[in-house]
Specification:
9-stranded mixed beta sheet, 17 strands, repeat, 307 residues, 19% helix, metal-binding, 8-stranded mixed beta sheet, alpha/beta
Length: 307
């Protein structure tokens, strides 16, 4: 049953050198800088996104993800979800409006996986970048690099997948769209959605809590993914793997790293999910094909390079 969570809203990523990071996220990935704050954080968005920002970069000593936020239908939904989170056993922190510039009050909690998440209902809407809301053109001129359209999801590594699934399914209203199951029946990967997308957040079982695998950005076509590969090579950006196709979700994808070592993905296509769909299940001994459908071989770096 849906509980008021609409979609992924933002992710705050730690980078080691802010100016180097901006060259990567703006000039290569093609996100648009929207604002900066007194803490030195920089706010970015994809050109199709109507809210003011979806990516926040913060300079720090260690790379990784600070938190991921989900936008809810309204303030009443946030109020009810706060009560439900407390009843589930989560500690909840309230952050005031404008602690993130242009964003309303947020409630933050830690999932059993060890990751911090936020819920909020209001954020300043600036509209699709370069386009009017009335009689809009097909796309704006002046886009840079890969021309990422939107922040789509995060993949996170951590502990206690069962309890994390309970939290996202029973409290937040997500569906389990896809999973990887070991021979003993243990779920070692889970792909969760609050929408029709293949996933809005995903978790991989890992002995260390709170690790960040990647933030993903949506492109429209396979040709866009191939063009992204060209630009990654042209700029001598560190490539992880691709272009290729996933078995899981069937998205067409490429992975690469920002200067701090945080992994990015750009992808197109992929499955869709309705609430009446049964979860798609992969056997763990088919994990190579599940992750990299074409060569069916696991890339060790893909499994172990985390921030």
């Amino acid at each position: 049953m849906k509980k008021g969570v609409m979609r992924p809203g933002h992710v705050q990523i730690r980078v080691l050198d802010l100016e180097e990071a901006l060259k990567h996220y703006v000039e290569l990935l093609g996100l648009i800088e929207m604002d900066r704050d007194e803490q030195g954080r920089v706010y970015l968005k994809g050109w199709t996104e109507v809210d003011k920002f979806s990516v926040v970069l913060r300079e720090a000593d260690q790379p990784g993800m600070d938190f991921m936020g989900f936008k809810c239908l309204d303030e009443a939904s946030v109020d009810q979800l706060e009560k439900d989170l407390l009843a589930f056993g989560c500690e909840v922190e309230t952050l005031p409006a404008e602690e993130l510039k242009g964003c309303g009050r947020r409630i933050r909690f830690k999932a059993p996986s060890g990751h911090d998440f936020e819920l909020y209902a209001s954020k300043e809407q600036t509209g699709k970048w370069g386009l009017s809301n009335r009689n809009p053109e097909a796309w704006p001129r002046g886009l840079k690099g890969i021309k990422a359209t939107r922040f789509d999801h995060c993949l996170l590594y951590g502990i206690d997948l069962d309890r994390t699934l309970e939290l996202f399914r029973d409290v937040l209203g997500f569906d389990l769209a896809e999973q990887v199951v070991a021979p003993d029946g243990k779920r070692v990967a889970q792909f969760l959605t609050a929408s029709m997308k293949a996933h809005d957040v995903a978790f991989i079982d890992h002995p260390e809590p709170g690790r960040f695998h990647h933030a993903s950005f949506f492109l429209e076509t396979w040709e866009d993914v191939l063009r992204a590969a060209d630009l990654i090579s042209m700029t001598d950006t560190s490539l992880d793997i691709g272009p290729t196709r996933h078995g899981l979700t069937h998205g067409k994808t490429i992975y690469f790293f920002d200067p701090a070592g945080n992994r990015n993905e750009v992808f197109c296509g992929g499955d869709y999910h309705y609430p009446d769909h049964e979860p798609v299940t992969w056997d763990a001994d088919e994990l190579g094909k599940a992750i990299f459908y074409h060569d069916r071989q696991l890339n060790e770096r893909f499994l172990t390079a985390l921030t």
